[in-house]
Design goal:
By secondary structure, this protein is of the alpha/beta class. The protein is about 35% helix and about 25% strand. Strand 5, helix 4 and strand 6 form a beta-alpha-beta unit. Helix 3 packs parallel to helix 4. The longest helix is centred in the N-terminal third of the chain and has 18 residues. Bound molecules: NADP nicotinamide-adenine-dinucleotide phosphate (NAP).
């Protein structure tokens, strides 16, 4: 650890805070209040704060003289022992984090985007310079998940990580499940309540979950999991009808982020809406909550749940990292292993049951023609529901649950199904999450 990062007895460590928005304000407030109280368990002192617009009104009262727009001078300030990056985005966050590490200053960040895109480089820079790079708040807000993977679970070979790690989409899907509401109506409500951004793309198209699962997978599987190697689907195409039929079959729908690895299959990471059985714990994680299941070979399944965002829960995770460094916690960052311990597997290798909702012509022989297309692709049918006959248009909803099938074969079958004259529309193709240890 860098000289100056660790507080000597009775002294406090100077913090350079890059960003004073939602999370930065909560972190600044916690440092200022506890410093004022002289809390001996909190040996920190807010030295400098960097923002884009120094004139902006802030959610925390602080001495204006410590606010600037010059990040490099804050990083160079000898009174700053730990740099806390809470600006977000890839750039200039990458430059500031790497400058800090190169200057021998430990960094705490909540920035999943820079960590997923450039985290490998940053961890190497941290290791070369013998300083810590901690990032508990980057995944799961207030839930301690990075720390356990980094420390407590290192004796395990991690087999899988499966999470609901985006609160906005979970809020929307929970409302759709419980109220039978349509996606667009619930999205508008989520925006009016402040649960969704005015531009909700990062959340509902799965980018946020993608960044987070890439960060978790790198840590759990000791290898780079580039974001463009991760299958990504958001929730725009999930309909109220899918919830209705899924529930009749004993499932609900969640946006899952999953990474699984074994020597035989390689490492496969994916973000997509999935049917999950109503009786697994993940099915009861509702609203803006987050949850992560980790399965290790020694420990078995572990379950983490809590507030995945918000100023105070996220500040809790940030401050935990800062205090661990200030109090002389564990050593330098560990870069990924070379050669990579796992090959990255393509999504086409994934095997699961599928839920297909198709609008078909309401006449005899249609199911047989669909079953033939699926059969030709080696996919067998587990169950079929025929619903909502539309007499005027002579069409009906056909809901097909398949037996486990390979993704690549299912995608081929879907292309052929779209060519069938009896298929009016292929409305939904959703994966069913497999829980191998479920009794
Ligand atoms: P935010 O409210 O948008 O705040 C960003 C802050 O960074 C602002 O103070 C902004 O300055 C400053 N900033 C941005 N670009 C800058 C630049 N180029 N130079 C100097 N200052 C710059 O963001 P946030 O919600 O606090 O999120 C911060 C980080 O925490 C992100 O990485 C986010 O993913 C992560 N995170 C957030 C939450 C959450 O609940 N919000 C939860 C977990 C993790 P101005 O104020 O002057 O514009």
């Amino acid at each position: 650890m860098a000289a100056g990062a660790r507080a000597a007895h009775g002294e406090s460590t100077g913090i350079g805070l890059l960003g004073l928005g939602v999370v930065g304000s909560a972190v600044a407030r916690a440092i200022i209040e506890r410093h004022r109280q002289g809390d001996p368990n909190f040996p920190l002192n807010l030295k400098s704060v960097v923002v884009r617009d120094p004139e902006k009104k802030r959610a925390v009262e602080l001495d204006r003289s410590i606010i600037s727009t010059d990040a490099e001078s804050v990083i160079a300030n000898p009174e700053v022992g730990i740099v806390v990056e809470l600006m977000g985005g890839e750039n200039p966050a990458f430059d500031y984090i790497s400058s800090s590490l190169k200057a021998g200053k430990p960094v705490v960040t909540a920035n999943k985007e820079v960590l997923s895109k450039r985290g490998g480089e940053l961890l190497s820079i941290a290791a070369e310079n013998g300083v810590q790079l901690f990032y508990e708040a980057s995944v799961g807000g207030g839930i301690p998940i990075i720390g356990p993977l980094m420390n407590d679970l290192t004796a395990n070979k991690i087999q899988s990580i499966r999470g609901i790690i985006n609160g906005t989409t979970n809020f929307i899907l929970s409302k759709m499940a419980h109220e039978g509401a349509d996606f667009n109506d619930v999205l508008a409500e989520a925006q009016s309540l402040g649960y969704a951004e005015s531009d909700p793309t990062a959340d509902i198209d799965g980018f946020d979950s993608l960044y987070k699962i890439s960060v978790l997978a790198r840590l759990a599987f000791h290898t780079e999991v580039p974001v463009d190697s991760i299958h990504q689907e958001g929730i725009r195409n999930v309909h109220a009808k899918d919830f209705r039929y899924a529930s009749e079959l004993g499932y609900t729908i969640k946006l899952l982020a999953v990474a699984q690895a074994s020597e035989e299959t390689g490492l496969l990471a994916r973000v997509h809406p999935a049917l999950i059985p109503l009786d697994v714990p993940m099915a009861s994680v509702n609203g803006a909550l987050n949850a992560v299941e980790v399965e290790g070979d020694l420990v078995g399944p572990l379950w983490f749940q809590g507030p995945g965002a918000g100023p105070e829960p996220t500040a809790s995770a940030v401050m935990g990292d800062v205090l661990r460094i200030a109090k002389g916690g564990p050593g330098a960052a560990k870069p990924v292993q070379t050669p990579a311990p796992f090959d990255i597997a393509p999504m086409g290798d994934h095997v699961c049951q599928f839920f297909l909702r198709v609008t078909v012509a309401d006449r005899p022989g249609v199911l047989a023609s669909i079953a033939k297309v699926l059969g030709d692709a080696d996919i067998s049918i587990d169950s079929v529901l025929q619903k909502d006959s539309d007499v005027e248009n002579q069409s009906a909803d056909l809901v097909i649950m398949t037996h486990p099938a390979q993704e690549a074969k299912m995608q081929d079958a879907v292309s052929s199904l779209r060519q069938l004259e009896a298929v009016v529309r292929l409305d939904s193709l959703l994966r069913v999450e497999t829980y191998p240890n479920r009794s």
